[in-house]
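User: Can you predict the 3D structure for this chain?
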Amino acid sequence: MTYQEENIRLNAGIETIYGTVNWVQMLHNDKRFLKIDILGHSEGSLIGI
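Assistant: Here is the predicted structure, written as structure tokens:
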């Protein structure tokens, strides 16, 4: 998903963070995964923090 800079709003970032948290929780509950690493590039690295 890409955003035009002039159209970026705080809600777009919050929706991305909530989606990421939900996804990580799903993986955490799946016992096939022992460890979950989150990596990001540029602004995406803020989500990883």
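Residues 5-48 form one domain. The chain has a mean pLDDT of 76.
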